């Protein structure tokens, strides 16, 4: 039987059998809408909702960790159902990703769900960055015969900078930054609510706005200078976002550049975005701007690499891998490359690798690992777990 690959993120679940080319991406939440109070929308059922204004979310993850097992089970029930993945747990092996430094009680909760509630045949526990490192080492890194890889995992609740030497995570050098996609969306909500419209209850909408118009600046001071200009003075940063009315417009969209500044139609409500487009993603590089006393991503990357002996630093600088949905911002890769080159203490070839789809790269790595001859060593059967509990996971994939 094929192995089920379950990249269980805080924002989305990337799930699919090892026989398929692409995973199914399902929001890891239960949504409730004002327009349909009686019906909860599980996962991607939200696509069936006619009016997504004022959505209320029930999340199994908080601050990057699965703290609500009941909610997670409800979402998994939907994912494993015949209409979605059609999983027969008793005949299926499963690979699941967990966050780094996961608490033991939460590890136990996940294992109990998968083994005792669903009764999967066998389980392999790993992390998204470990899967990404494995996939990179046998594809992009194979030609370089690389020894060291630095994986930057930009997720929903956090960003992890994780170094690997010969495929083994160097735990004491891992850095976590408490800024991810969720913090950026919340910050954009506050800015827009202060300047234009009250949208503090519109998380779903503002998240779409963030994904559609925001970008990472590679010349922050230059972009600030441009954003201070009026539209008539050649301000190339301003964009206008047409908000949905949930009747004729189901999803908001960005107006064409040549239409920017033109009078809105009677059916259109316009949200104008200027410096918000680049100042919101800038939080990833300067978390202290919103009171988070931590270093930014670029600084953390250099700090982690510089903690290693000089012979290894060249390899790390040459193999920086970006994964996670938050790394999809335009300009993100270029900004990391620019900052790291500037701050590196030694002259070295710096290479930043951004996969074609950073969101599913970890899933693809786990899928590839499930076909490895060594894979069976990391699998724990249900019977073994019943005898030894968490101690059965002696060979764990570097969580």
Automatic annotation (TrEMBL):
InterPro entries, per database record: Actin, ATPase_NBD
GO cellular component terms, A-Z: cytoskeleton; nucleus
UniProt KW keywords: Cytoplasm, Cytoskeleton, Nucleus
Entry keyword Cytoplasm: yes
Keyword Cytoplasm: yes
Localization per Swiss-Prot or TrEMBL: Cytoplasm, Cytoskeleton; Nucleus
Similarity comment: Belongs to the actin family. ARP6 subfamily.
UniProt name for this protein: Actin-related protein 6
Species for this entry: Orchesella cincta (Springtail)
Lineage: Eukaryota, Metazoa, Ecdysozoa, Arthropoda, Hexapoda
């Amino acid at each position: 039987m094929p192995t089920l690959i379950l990249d269980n993120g805080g924002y989305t679940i990337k799930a699919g059998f090892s026989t398929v080319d692409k995973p199914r991406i399902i929001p890891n939440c239960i949504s409730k809408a004002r327009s349909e109070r009686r019906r909860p929308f599980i996962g991607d059922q939200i696509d069936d909702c006619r009016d997504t204004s004022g959505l209320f979310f029930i999340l199994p993850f908080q601050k990057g960790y699965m703290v609500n097992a009941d909610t997670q089970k409800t979402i998994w029930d939907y994912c494993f159902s015949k209409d979605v993945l059609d999983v027969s747990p008793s005949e299926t092996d499963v690979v699941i990703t967990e966050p780094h430094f996961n608490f033991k009680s939460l590890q136990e909760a996940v294992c109990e769900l998968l083994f005792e509630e669903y009764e999967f045949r066998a389980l392999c526990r790993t992390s998204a960055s470990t899967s990404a490192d494995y996939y990179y080492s046998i594809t992009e890194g194979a030609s370089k015969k690389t020894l060291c890889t630095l994986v930057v995992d930009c997720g929903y609740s956090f960003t992890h900078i994780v170094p690997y030497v010969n495929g083994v995570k160097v735990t004491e050098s891992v850095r976590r930054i408490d800024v991810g996609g969720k913090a950026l969306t919340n910050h954009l909500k506050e800015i827009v609510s202060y300047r234009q419209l009250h949208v503090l209850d519109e998380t779903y909408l503002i998240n779409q706005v963030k994904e559609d118009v925001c970008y990472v600046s590679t010349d922050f001071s230059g972009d600030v200078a441009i954003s201070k200009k009026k539209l008539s003075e050649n301000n190339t940063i301003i964009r206008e976002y047409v908000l949905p009315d949930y009747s004729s417009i189901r999803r908001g969209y960005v107006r064409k550049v040549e239409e920017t500044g033109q009078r809105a139609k009677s059916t259109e409500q316009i949200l104008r975005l200027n410096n918000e487009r680049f100042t919101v993603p800038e939080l990833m590089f300067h978390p202290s701007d919103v009171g988070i006393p931590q270093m930014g991503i670029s600084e953390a990357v250099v700090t982690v690499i510089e903690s290693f002996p000089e012979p290894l630093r060249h390899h790390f600088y040459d193999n920086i891998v970006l994964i996670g949905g938050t790394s999809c911002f335009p300009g993100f890769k270029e900004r990391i490359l620019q900052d790291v080159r500037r701050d590196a203490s030694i002259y070295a070839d710096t290479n930043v690798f951004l996969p074609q789809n950073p969101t599913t790269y970890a899933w693809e790595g786990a899928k590839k690992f499930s076909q490895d001859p060594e894979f069976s060593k990391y699998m724990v059967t249900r019977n073994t777990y019943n005898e030894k509990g968490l101690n059965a996971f002696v060979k764990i994939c570097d969580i």
